[in-house]
Each structure stands twice: as structure tokens, then as C-alpha cells.
């Protein structure tokens, strides 16, 4: 038996997903005869089109359908938070391997090279890493003006003083002249903490602990904005975000 998968969606939905306009703006464009599919003017909003093969031109401009994808990775240690590297394995290498295993590469239709990690974790840091092709969302999450909270679980080589929480809350000098923004330290044990910061300076968590006399020996990101690491996701594994999880980031 031969199965044929037909990929199609309504033209109005497709144009909305491609950010051409709101539902009503898209309807207007269609009504005015400004949209062609394979050379034919399409006016009916409920016309089904093949988003992967049809040639869609709107107001004289060709649009390629590229849906956004969002993946959660539980980053393992030893992998670079980069798209590519000549010598070392990157999170994108890991994503490619995982998608191949899950046989998803072709289904999403998104070239892995268009996907990138949102921000960086150090090579030895583990935990939550968001991977997407949505540049606007990434920009919003990383913008220093947005103060998106990032929570880390930290183990140190020695206990730190009682005053550390107050020092972190007030901003601390990590050698850049400008103090860090207020951060929240929760003590979980004598050498175990959760730290929430709203910036993304280079080696920030490690340098903050260094400033109060301890070295970080284990660092794991557990949340970013409203997105929380799925603790059932083993290290090195990746899964797509649910719709609800994507909305938590918007
Ligand atoms: N702060 C660090 O020091 N390292 C990371 O990977 C993330 C935050």
C-alpha cells in the first residue's frame, strides 16, 4: 500500500502565520486580488494551498513558508552553545542527531542550519537551553531591557558567607565597573543554591560566586522567563515545546 501525505492549509491561515498581516488584513488582500498561488489569483480565504510546494505571491513578493520551531534541550556538559565549530561538538550537532533519530528533519521542513540557541551556556554548564529559528523571540528574551529572569542551580566548592544574599540583592562588583543587577539567592544547603539573575554577562554566575569567595563546581539552568526545564528530559535530550510553553515565552 502507498500512503500519500498531502500537506495543505487554508491560504488565510498561511498568510497570517507568515506574518503578512492579521486575519482581517489578509482577507482584505485576498479580496483585492493581491494574492496569487501558482499564478492564479486567489480571493477565497478558505482555499487550501500546499505550503511546501505552491508558489505564493502577495503584492508582487514571493513568500516562502517557514514555520517557527521551538525546542527545549537539557544541555549536557562538554557541548558548545554554538551553531557550529570546527573542532568541538555543538548544541546544533546534537539537535541534528536527535532530529535524525526521531526522523523529524523532513517533517518540520526547517533546515537545522536556521536554528540557533537562545543565549549561551558555558561548555560545562548543563540544563535548559532553548533552540529556535524565531529571531524576534530570541531578541526579546536576550534584550537587557527586558530583564528576563534566568534561574540556576549552583553547587560551590565551599560555603559562602551569610551576607551573600544581601550582596547579590544589592548588586555586586564582578570586575566590570558596573554592578550586577539585583539577583535572588536561595540557600538550599551549605554549598547548594538557586540563583536568579536578569542579565546575561559573560560567566556571570561563576563570577558572582567568585566575588563572595567560592568557586562554582556545578551549574544547571532550570528556568528562563516562564519556561521551566522539564526534569523528565534526560541530559542530552531535546523535545519540542508545547504550545502552552511557547506562550509562556511571549
Ligand atoms: N553564568 C555562568 O557563569 N555560566 C553559564 O553558563 C551561565 C551563566
Secondary structure elements and their pairing?
Layout: E1 9-10, H1 11-17, H2 23-31, E2 35-37, E3 40-41, E4 48-49, E5 56-58, E6 61-63, E7 70-75, H3 91-102, H4 105-108, E8 116-117, E9 126-132, H5 135-142, E10 150-156, H6 164-170, E11 184-189, E12 192-197, H7 204-211, E13 216-224, E14 227-228, E15 238-240, H8 243-249
Parallel strand pairs: 9-13
Antiparallel strand pairs: 1-4, 2-3, 2-5, 5-6, 7-9, 7-15, 8-9, 10-12, 10-13, 11-12, 13-14
Beta-strand proportion: 25-35%
Structural category is: alpha+beta
Shape by Cα distribution = elongated
Q: Taking all residues together, what is the mean pLDDT?
A: 91
Number of strands: 15
Distance between the termini: 44 Å
Report low-confidence residues grouped into runs of 5 or more.
1-5
Bound molecules: uracil
Give me the Rg, rounded: 23 Å
Tell me the number of helical segments per DSSP (H or I, 4 or more residues long). 8
Q: What order do the helices and strands follow?
A: EHHEEEEEEHHEEHEHEEHEEEH
Q: What does the largest sheet look like?
A: 9 strands, mixed
Q: What is the helix content?
A: 10-25%
